[in-house]
Amino acid sequence: MPIVTYGNTDDDLKLQNIHGLWLEQKKSKVAVWIEECGNQLCGHVYWLKKPLNDDGLVKRDPNNINPDLRQRLLCGLTLLTGFIPDKENSWHDGKIYNPSNGQTYKSTITLAQDGSLNIRGYVGISLFGKTSTWIRPQEKIQPCNKQLSD
């Protein structure tokens, strides 16, 4: 994938397009590339702040509840699946995978007026969940497979 730069973009464009690169805002440890997968939205890890673990090895998915998947690389790992359009600037029926605990949650995505994404993961009903905000990166970000090859 190419190096992607997002800066000051037209507000209308921000609200029309969920596709592309998004950075988790709170800790800024991961960026996800969102795209169409068939007739649904999906997203995979594009960039990691720290692509290597404490031992200097490429980060994998050791907390996955399925032991057969624990050797998967985090770089490129699909985190978002199955999102379908709901109302304007909203997607539902998706799932979000959290590699920190190996769990997959039901999820919704809402594109806010300010151009940020609100991604809600939950168990059961949306009331019992957590929302994280993702923003467009304001600087150049190299894909993690490029980070590892440099």
Give a brief outline of the structure.
The chain is mostly beta strands. It is built from 2 helices and 8 strands.
Structure description:
It contains 2 helices and 8 strands. The chain has about 150 residues and is mainly beta. The longest helix has 6 residues, at about 10-15. The two termini are about 15 Å apart. It has a single domain (about 10-150), classed as Lipocalin, CATH 2.40.128. The chain has an 8-stranded antiparallel barrel.
User: What is the CATH-assigned architecture?
Assistant: Beta Barrel
Q: What is the gyration radius calculated from CA atoms?
A: 15 Å
Helix content: under 10%
Strand percent estimate: 35-45%
The number of E-state strands comes to 8
Element-level helix/strand string: HEEEEEEEEH
Q: CATH fold name, please? A: Lipocalin
Biggest sheet descriptor = 8 strands, antiparallel, barrel
Q: Please report the distance between the alpha carbons of the first and last residues.
A: 15 Å
Mean pLDDT across every amino acid position = 87
How are the elements arranged and paired?
Layout: H1 11-16, E1 20-24, E2 30-37, E3 40-48, E4 78-85, E5 90-98, E6 103-111, E7 117-122, E8 129-135, H2 144-149
Antiparallel strand pairs: 1-2, 1-8, 2-3, 3-4, 4-5, 5-6, 6-7, 7-8
What are the salient characteristics of this protein?
mainly beta, Lipocalin, disordered N terminus
